[in-house]
Amino acid sequence: MSMHTHVLQLPLTAEALRSIAVGDEVRLSGDITISIGLPTHKRMLEDVQAGRELPVDLKGGAFFHLSAYLEDQPGGGLPRALYMNPSTSTRYNPYMPGLISGLGLRLVGGKGGLDAASVAAMQATGCIYLSFLGGGCPLLSDAIEGVVSSHWNEYISQFRLTTLRVRDLPATVAIDAQGHSLYDSLQQRAANRLPQIREALKREREQALNASPLNRLEK
Amino acid sequence: MIPQALIRSVSAALYERSLKKIPDDTHAALKKAQGSERDATGRRTISIMLDSADAAAQRGELVCTDVGIPVYSVKIGTQVRFEGAVRQAIVDGFADLVQNIQPPILKMITNPLTHERSYAGKDMPLVTFDVIDGADYIEMICAPKAMGSGRWEELKTFVFPSLETIEDYVLEVVMRAGSQPCPPIVVGVGIGGSFDYAARLAKQQVLRPVGEVNPDPMLAAMEARLLKAINAMGYGPMGTGGDSTAMGVHIDYAASHGFMPVAVALNCWINRRMGARIGNDGSVAWFE
Fold it and tell me: How close are the terminal C-alpha atoms of chain B, in Å?
């Protein structure tokens, strides 16, 4: 796979995403909004469908499944984000197509990808999915410049709707705006390879069993 | 005599260490994968993984924000005497950790009926106890479990399954998880026993150091061929493509009946675990 590195500055136009392909590396700067709350997603989608404004303007923006520890400051004011890291995106599959098209999101992400309905919404909208390193907490957190806003603060830290300013946040493009999903193609490739893999397993199993005088598990 | 306060402080320390440093064997396995990985995206991802793990260890930071739920395995030597309560010591140790760890951790403990999250909950921490006959020490292992790998673990009960059926099931579970459990993963397999016992065997196998060869030649061969099979699937580091989908497949079995459960446990690439041996004389030796 040929890889390119794209230095992206939010906000982004749909045109800016056209030259970006799965497998490419991204360094992202600008304001990103994050949450890993299921109640948050439900509430966001209800607001979008009812035509209500979200507390933060996400139109054409970036919304990621990143969890952050927000340290509230004594006397109020903006909290401090101590660290962040991605979460598995697939559990938000039911909400994402509506959020992607309803908000015209340009960037979504987390880890593990999204399903076919989201990929279709992304292609129609002009949106890419970024895979962040799970277990990449120290490096991803280095990109945090500060908290821009924190809404729905009645939720626990990682469920809030939080906007962070980041600089040079590293990620891998895993679903592009042309409808290519690394997750789908890899799953398809694994399924295609399975008959051969099982054949090889069978050969090796028989060799091992023939070499062993005791066939304990099958006796 | 092992005092309650010592078990309490060791419980807290085990959890913190497991969150901030990946085991040496796991680091070595990732280095090895970096050398053999043919996919450019995969190689880049492994090198960022190593950077992240090194940065966390050097700076005393968390490797992952999902600190999971606290899970402890405790083995008690039969020659050991305790002063105070063992289970309460672990509960208090975890509470101390929540209070004192820097940076602070997120709320992950979730009531399964209401989905309410906090830093404590019914039966938390999860602790299993075992005995070591004749030993004058206890062994504690803390292996926090989070959603990334935890949600893909499975158990299925078969009737007189062939080896082929068992191996196919392992592949099936790994494929269902696909890109999502933060590969390269460690796959622990428990075969036979009973429903609960198979799950426990699988979990114990996940905790086995990566690269350690199974002393049972039949299982060693099974582990080697399954590892090869999984790494031929192509999910790769973080599931964005490559040869490095698993670092190890670890298998154990127990005699069973005609019904034979097969449990498959998974750990993500940071492979969190930390152990300590506490002597009856109050000495503490750490191990991974």
Answer: 24
